[in-house]
Write a structure and sequence with these properties.
Keywords: Bacterial flagellum, Cell membrane, Cell projection, Cilium, Flagellum, Membrane, Signal, Transmembrane, Transmembrane helix. It holds the Pfam family FliO. One of its GO terms (biological process) is bacterial-type flagellum organization. By secondary structure, the chain is an alpha+beta fold. It has a domain of 41 residues. Helix content is 43%, strand content 22%. Strand 1 and strand 2 form a beta hairpin. 0% of the residues are buried.
Length: 145
């Protein structure tokens, strides 16, 4: 029994001594992502986002981005006539409206039909699709014959 207790004590002391002293010159590696690199990355990201937002604001401010035409109402043209006043041409169902736009106010200046639009009841200058298909088939038969 004394031998068993002695061996147990010897093994326990030897393992704890190795575990404590292990490698006295061992220095753990520095972390891969340091605080400085994280701050630098976040700063660069904020700078890129600021450039994107600023560029978008400038494009909208100087009307370099055309407004998306959706639905029935389409903005055909716009021109600034003052610091906050604009003249806008709007298309609504083959009709153009010339509008004067100011802060809090819109006035109709003129109404006209859309230039180049076909009047109802007139025949279009271009032939129907069936005629084109017939002509295409005839020309293909001539080349094959």
């Amino acid at each position: 029994m004394l031998i068993r207790y002695g061996m147990f004590l010897l093994l326990t002391l030897s393992f704890s001594a190795v575990a404590e002293t292990g490698k006295p010159s061992y220095v753990p590696p520095s972390p891969v992502i340091s605080t400085e690199s994280t701050v630098q990355m976040i700063g660069a990201l904020l700078l890129v986002l600021a450039v994107i937002v600023g560029g978008t604001w400038l494009l909208k401010r100087f009307s370099l981005i055309p407004a998306a035409a959706s639905g029935v109402v389409k903005v055909v043209a716009a021109a600034g006539v003052g610091q906050r006043e604009r003249v806008v041409v709007v298309e609504i169902d083959q009709t153009w409206l010339v509008l004067g736009v100011a802060p809090g106010r819109v006035n109709k200046l003129h109404t006209m039909t859309k230039p180049g639009s076909d009047a109802p009841g007139t025949k279009p200058d271009h032939p129907p699709v069936e005629t084109f298909a017939t002509q295409l088939n005839q020309s293909m038969e001539k080349e094959n014959a």
